[in-house]
Design goal:
By secondary structure, this protein is α/β, with parallel strands linked by helices. It contains eight helices and seven strands. It is globular, with a radius of gyration of 18 Å.
Length: 257
């Protein structure tokens, strides 16, 4: 199916691995021109080298206040505009509320929340001009609080509200804003958690994976490519009546409304 994305310009943060990398690969396959942002210059350049469509790397630490504006300016200077912003960057430290430090909380909000705020603000005028879209990659932890995910759940809840705020503004400005809540996706981060569980319980990797999936009440873990497919849909005209939608792609993990 033609998603009508060919030739359009996408800015993807956190694009060097995992879900961000899969999103870049899917949008490149749709013929989009890409600006890929992350801290790892080598990883970004390797990804760009594998695409036939135009793609450029923008290595930067988006926790730095000035970096998002520079990213937007770079995209416009390189390709002449922005049609899509995918706010994907950010990981938060796990741990019980009482064990997390001020620095942990500050860092958790700095990349995943404030970078999304700043990237959206910097890209907004260009998205208004193009009639473009924002897709925020958030996480199901924002829907259901858990003691071991205090920072991540709080940041994700804030991002869901931000999605609604920007979508409301976007109705007047002609910018489509939606979000995706991935569940447990088989990225390197999840594989590390599975390996740690296997070592802790002295069981095999397969047994640890099965036990973790069972605890989450899902039959399997998702793939980065499944999240990327959802991004392509929300970026395309097929989703034009979706405004402020928060799509849970989690295998049924979320039981709350």
């Amino acid at each position: 199916m033609d998603m009508e994305l060919k030739g359009k310009v996408a800015v993807i943060t956190g694009a060097s691995r995992g879900i961000g990398k899969a999103i870049a690969q899917r949008l490149a396959a749709e013929g989009m021109r890409l600006v890929l942002a992350a801290r790892s210059k080598d990883a970004l350049q390797t990804i760009c080298a594998g695409f036939r469509t135009g793609s450029v790397a923008f290595p930067a630490d988006l926790r730095q206040e000035e970096s998002p504006a520079k990213l937007a300016a770079f995209a416009v200077d390189t390709f002449g505009g922005i049609d899509l912003l995918v706010n994907n960057a950010g990981a938060t430290k796990r741990g019980d509320f009482l064990s997390l430090t001020e620095a942990d909380w500050t860092d958790g909000f700095a990349l995943k929340f404030y970078a999304a705020v700043r990237c959206s603000r910097s890209a907004w005028p260009h998205l208004v001009k193009s009639g473009g879209a924002i897709v925020n990659i958030i996480g199901v932890g924002g829907r259901t609080g858990r003691a071991e995910f205090a920072i991540g759940g709080t940041v994700n809840a804030a991002l869901m509200n931000l999605t609604k705020v920007l979508a409301d503004r976007g109705i007047a400005d002609g910018v489509k804003v939606n979000a995706i809540n991935p569940g447990s996706i088989a990225t390197d981060r999840l594989k590390t958690r599975i390996r740690m569980l296997a070592e802790e319980k002295d069981i095999s990797i397969d047994e640890a994976e099965s036990a973790m999936a069972q605890k989450l009440c899902v039959d399997r873990f998702g793939t980065p490519e499944e999240i990327a497919s959802a991004v392509a849909f929300l970026a395309s005209p097929l989703s034009d009546y979706c405004r402020g939608a928060i799509l849970d792609v989690d295998g049924g993990q979320t039981k709350t409304l």
